[in-house]
Specification:
The chain contains five helices and no strands. It is mostly helical.
Length: 111
């Protein structure tokens, strides 16, 4: 299925309006009213849930290998999780996982 340039821009505009309305419904309508403590507590977990949600498909079904799990990426993901849990620091987990990933990719390129 192919789209014309006009259709693509129309889709982008509709998605932009939809995104604005979703955000406005939360931020604009609540305004300065205080949120319940339960909502505030749950909102703190949003970044922790979004990052694995973005990374998991890249680890489990990478396009570079035709959708097959790649052992190097799986090892890097486990290393990231282990370093993050051990250090209790997200940044060290990301740095350690990136190091393991690129070291593993470098080693497999040499083989």
């Amino acid at each position: 299925m192919s789209y014309t340039t006009t259709e693509i821009w129309l889709i982008i505009a509709i998605l932009a309006v939809g995104t604005f309305l979703i955000r406005f419904s939360f931020l604009g309508l609540i305004g300065d009213r205080p949120m319940p403590p339960l909502v505030l507590r749950l909102l703190r977990f949003t970044p922790v849930a979004v990052l694995p949600g973005m990374v998991a498909p890249l680890v489990l079904w990478p396009a570079a290998t035709g959708g097959q799990p790649d052992p190097v990426r799986l090892i890097a993901a486990v290393a990231t999780l282990a370093i993050g849990l051990w250090s209790r620091n997200v940044l060290w987990g990301i740095i350690g996982g990136a190091f393991v990933l690129y070291a593993g990719l470098g080693i497999t390129a040499l083989l």
